[in-house]
Specification:
427 residues, D-Maltodextrin-Binding Protein, domain 2
């Protein structure tokens, strides 16, 4: 009896200890469109370093699921602790729901922490803040550079050279179409992809002009932007984009077709390198990324240059007012953006780092290393990709869709963006 008593007491003590540890475990809730498999690796690394904190992640496809979920949660004051954000319009849309992170970041990384953020990202972090508001509401995790990716095996098979001129681009699209492939997949039902291509075009005519226009320093109806809008329409009219592009989505449809080798070109960004790290089955084109390479959109008319690099913050994270009530929420956000969580994302080639001093580790092919180095060399000189005002971004999305559909002329479409800009700037 006595032996049984001591055994039972030991078991009871162990059970009580386990229950106590479980009761003391804190939970952080996170929402984002960040790749689920990569986020899980980041969470696993974080929880190994912080076993007292449980992280619950909810993945959404960015458009429209994530955008819809955020709106609903903000309206009901039920946002999670940490939310994925893009700088500018998306951050500003939820600024009242976010906690400034400056003091927390300085405590974690030192007073000069912003100097470790790449310049184009640093410019975007406060984009759209009201006058006098110098707070940061977003911590960048990764950077990106926009480009045109192409399937180099298809290019070799069809004897297509990397386009250097617009005529080359049209010829490449025709050869791909004649060969039974989608020429350049455009998810034109997605405002973000349309914005990205328009920014490539606009910066050909005048580098930085979209930044000036959204700041009220240049008219949206300026000749350069009208020319860019006409060039945008030309990508549809000249059959460079696929038929039915206006009803198509970049993710998951376009990305899946591209990975399967059924698409010749697609306007994406440096994040496409991550495809090589996804679990099997992988297509012959995605395996080790040997089937892909990238170029910048060639000049669409004589007298202009090829598109410069455009980019900045790919994804960042904000600490919600709900999350600010729990210190463990910042602990996770800090590790995700500039710690053990970030390293796992970089190892998966999810994208380029937002903070200096980080690089991917592990099994990476020479081809991917070379492409990553090209992106990193271009990142410091990238033109801004983001919009400060949600209303201006939405107006441009509508303008691009209307011009592409033929229901709006470029000048009238841009005049509507000007009106939205004037209203956003209080004019």
């Amino acid at each position: 009896m006595r032996g049984k008593f001591f055994l039972s007491a030991g078991i009871l003590a162990f059970a009580l200890s386990t229950l106590s540890a479980f009761a003391q475990q804190k939970e952080v809730t996170v929402w984002s469109w960040f790749v689920q498999s990569t986020m899980q690796k980041s969470i696993d690394a974080f929880q190994k370093a912080h076993p007292d904190i449980k992280v619950t992640y909810t993945y959404y496809n960015y458009s429209p699921e994530y955008i819809t979920a955020l709106k609903a949660a903000a309206a009901s004051d039920s946002l999670p602790d940490v939310i994925g954000l893009q700088p500018g319009s998306l951050t500003q849309q939820y600024r009242d729901n976010l906690e400034p992170i400056d003091q927390l970041a300085a405590k974690a990384w030192g007073d000069g922490w912003q100097d470790k953020v790449f310049p184009v990202n640093r410019r975007q972090m406060q984009m759209g803040n009201p006058p006098g508001d110098k707070n940061n509401y977003i911590v960048p995790q990764e950077s990106q550079v926009l480009c045109i990716w192409y399937n180099r095996k298809l290019f070799d098979q069809l004897k297509i050279s990397v386009p250097k001129t617009y005529a080359d681009l049209k010829a490449a699209a025709k050869a791909l179409t004649d060969g039974g492939y989608i020429p350049m997949f455009q998810g034109a039902a997605d405002g973000w992809q349309n914005e990205n291509v328009f920014l490539m075009l606009a910066n050909q005519f005048s580098a930085g002009i979209v930044d000036k226009a959204q700041a009220g320093q240049a008219p949206w109806t300026s000749p350069e932007l009208v020319s860019a809008m006409k060039a945008w329409k030309g990508l549809f009219d000249d059959a460079i984009f696929q038929q039915g592009a206006l009803g198509a989505h970049a993710y998951p449809t376009g990305a899946q077709l591209f990975a399967q080798g059924r698409v010749g070109m697609m306007a994406l960004g440096s994040w496409w390198m991550q495809e090589s790290k996804f679990p099997p089955p992988l297509s012959e084109f995605v395996q080790n990324m040997d089937g892909f390479d990238f170029f910048y959109l060639p000049p669409v008319k004589d007298g202009v240059s090829a598109s410069p690099p455009v980019g900045g913050i790919d994804i960042g994270y904000g600490l919600t007012k709900n999350g600010a009530k729990h210190p463990e929420s910042w602990t996770f956000l800090a590790e995700l953006t500039n710690g053990v969580g970030l390293q796992e994302a970089l190892n998966d080639l999810n994208d380029l780092p937002a903070f200096s001093g980080h690089e991917p580790k592990g099994d990476i092919t020479d081809h991917v290393k070379e492409m990553s180095a090209r992106f990193m060399a271009d990142l410091p000189k990238a033109e801004n990709q983001r919009f400060a005002s949600p209303a201006v971004s939405e107006a441009l999305d509508n303008a691009l869709a209307g011009v592409a559909a033929g229901s709006l002329e470029p000048e009238a479409a841009l005049a509507s963006v000007q009106a939205a800009t004037d209203k956003a700037l209080g004019k």
